[in-house]
Amino acid sequence: MKIIISLLLVVVLGCLFLFFPPDPTDPYYESDHISYWYYTDKDIKNSPRITQDYSFSYVPPDGGQRESSTITFKGISDTKDLQKYLEGLGYKRYRVTDNGRNESWFSEKGGVIFEIWHDRKLNTIILTKTTM
Q: Alpha carbon of 100 to those of 84, 119, 122: distances in Å?
């Protein structure tokens, strides 16, 4: 009887998750296990944690909008660890714009763009992976 109740509970919770998933466009944290597991891209999950204050967000593909996964770091201004991480994944810095505040990174494999945004006023760094 306990097994049946447990299975029923799992099915009900699974259905609730499928029909009422968390909103991925709202910032979420690594401790939000469902959102973190379900929405966060593996390369964003594996990125170095350059501060203790960070959050995630996700934009699903919709019409002409591309899928993107983001990690936002607060209280930091150094992007070197993120640059090394992207180089280790085989990406090369393609373009630097906006007085060095935005870097675009591409791979020869194609299909993916990484961007590093640096907001000096807010002391925030954003790493975004966008799938083409």
A: 17, 10, 15
Q: Please give the DSSP secondary-structure letter assigned to residue 94.
A: E
Joined tokens for residue 36:
């973190």
Distance CA 16, CA 112 (A): 32
Residues in the chain: 132
Angle, CA 91 vertex, CA 86 and CA 67 arms, to 5°:
80
CB 72 within 8 A of CB 49: no
For residue range 44-60, what is the model confidence (pLDDT) as tens digits? 999 999 999 999 999 88
Q: Which domains, and CATH codes, for the chain? A: 23-131 (3.30.310)
Cα angle 54-27-128, degrees, rounded to a multiple of 5 = 65
pTM for this prediction:
0.80
